[in-house]
Amino acid sequence: MDKNMVINQLKWSVQALALEAKEQVSCFPSFVVVTDELLLEFDNWYNAALANFPDFFSQEQQVVLMKLNAHLDSHSIQDEFKSEIEELEQYTFWAVLRALAKDVLRIMDWEQGIPPSGRAAYIQTI
User: Hey, which end of the chain has fewer CB within 10 Å, N or C?
Assistant: First the structure.
């Protein structure tokens, strides 16, 4: 695995987690489940980075990444929301996740912003 590619993908996944709800939705094609993709992308690149480049991160960086990952692991499905945007805006889980993602961006010295649109390919199945 290419280290720069994995670290960039991790950074972009954290940037997406730190965005406000409407921006998060705009980062993905209309046919995907945005809440799932946000969680899956971070989980994938976090695990890839730690497994392949564990010495890349300082102790402080590892701690904030672990906090973000632990919160992600605490996610439970909420059926009370009518739409994804409502869930992203109203479910406390997402507000806490955004704050933790912003902490990761700050500690990693990564810019906050919208990740590149071509960072991943999504395939629509019928």
Answer: C
